[in-house]
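Proteins fold reproducibly. Look at a sample protein:
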Amino acid sequence: MNKVPMTVRGHELLQEEVKRLKSVDRPAIIKAIAEARAHGDLKENAEYHAAKEQQGFIEGRIKEIESKLSHVHVIDVTRIDARGKIVFGSTVELIDEDTGKEIEYRIVGEDEADIKHGLLSYTSPIARALISKNEGDIIEFQAPDGLKTYEVVEVRYE
């Protein structure tokens, strides 16, 4: 499997999640399973079956995160000399040429993307159009609702 780019913050969040799953959630579900077993007949014990299902989810999520962490390439944008260009991890302030609305995005890995919080996957059409551009450049990209045009107002490396 190829290395997958991720920001420092995204890497920290995954590490925190797997630590919580192993040290808090896993022990809690083991305790819940033990308590449900103490109630007797497991065939008709809804608490037991729900706890076992939750345990499967937790174990699956731990495996998924550990796999991602083993294939991650952490990129610290604050340590890159990008010379003003938009790169992975950059925070970009844009103006929509049609509406005049200002928008701010940060280009992140696929697992970190959350458009509601201004976090764009580097594989998205707008991020691909932004990569390697500079302040003052105009970008165009095909959005689901048609061609969009933005001006790059500011590029930051935070």
